[in-house]
Amino acid sequence: xxxxxxxEEEIQLAAAYLDSKIQEIKAEGKIIDSDRIxxxxxxxxxxxxxxxxxxxxxxxxxxxxxxxxxxQKVDEVMVKKES
Length: 83
Known about the structure:
Elements: H1 8-28, H2 34-52, H3 60-82
């Protein structure tokens, strides 16, 4: 990934954080597919970010409903992919 030199350390930290989330999900053993693991890790990190922004009038309940909906869609796609 190309990035300005002054952002390189932050990108490496972000990659390490993403990897740690992926490893957490793998360790749970509930999800095996690597694509799905990456999606769930991204959703988890996004959720954390939005929780930090919660004080800005963000509707957390709506966000939670959307996460549930997205997870269901991911499940449906993964079932079709496995067929």
